[in-house]
Amino acid sequence: MKQPLLWITGIFFSLTASASLAQTGPPEPGSVGHRVTEKSFPSVFQAWNPIDMPSWPQDSLEERLKAAAKHDLIWEEPVSQLGYGVKLVLGAVWDHKHGGLATGFTAESQQQAIANRAAMLKMNPDMAFLLEVRWRDAPGSFLPEDSPFWKRHPNGTRVEGWLGGPEPYFMLDYENEAFRANVSRQCRIALDSGVYDGIMLDWNGRLDLIKRVRTEIGQDGLIIVNIHDDVKDGEEYKDLINGSFMECNPNGPGAPKASFYTSWDDLRDGLIFFEEHFQNPQINCLEVWGSRDDLRRMRAATTLGLTHSNGYLLYADPNPLKTPDHLHNWYDFWNVDLGRPLNDCVRKKMPKNRVAERSFEGGVVVYNHFGNEKAVFSFDTPHKRLSDGKISKQFEMQDADGDIFLPATLKE
């Protein structure tokens, strides 16, 4: 539907559609390209770990699939997650006791994972599925202790890796050409399995490794790398990857004292750059950390993603909590069906007296950046503010906040 134009502090503005939304050729229905580019919004992703709420139990496979299917993109990594005792959603398991030496998935788990994938796609046809392949560090059980793929101290002992795992983690020797070949081989196995649409590489990646993975899986496979909002890494990888896992903890109201600290400015600027330069189909995944009860911060993260990208979003627990990372609530705010965007995402920094706005088939999303002036804006017809149900033509919004506005009548 055509949305009413938005007036901000008495100044009329409208965003125009960009040619970047046009496809050179429509992706085949059901293909990963179609699922990514034709999805409805909001579009939420699951990074390893699931919704964590009593109203979304995870005890049975049916319950886990139903909860996962609320998301449009998920990724798993069986070695570490199974080490934590996490029950997987797709559930493909490497066929070797040392996952780094696997030549495939066990036949039983692969068959079940294909069935789980089909069940989730039936519930949510927009879903895409990725496998994290380990390249930087891994649990000690990932390889034999004497493997040449471990990075070692001069005395021959393994170099310690991530400290937050269920067992000791050790660094992998990503300078080793044979190890890089092993990583790309496992990426190819994942895509050939019929379970996964692409690969997730945690940490910030390495150019030589990413090149090898892209060559191995071809142009149709998705690649996302955890480069946060780092434009420098984005410039280096832009011709090879489809998205960034923007695992970030921006400043401002509600910012937890945790790692990956950044600013809303850098988060916005990184998202704009990634949307402009990464390969299609794009799968930028914006994650902001915060308290589950901080609805203002959740709205800011959600509306930044909706106005500035065609990607995915998540508001999740801070990593330093003594619980598995990336657990999250499911918010009513995410249940609204906005449909498809009617204009392109915001491609520039807005003045401090201007909010970012984007129209969708089902409503209008407004985002007021941290540090901006309080916004006063009007629609030419009544709208309902999703966060509190207020119906009006005129609204106010504090900075570091955002909201969704749905067409309404004053009689509602």
TrEMBL record:
<keyword id="KW-0732">Signal</keyword>
<feature type="signal peptide">
    <location>
        <begin position="1"/>
        <end position="22"/>
    </location>
</feature>
<protein>
    <recommendedName>
        <fullName>Glycosyl hydrolase-like 10 domain-containing protein</fullName>
    </recommendedName>
</protein>
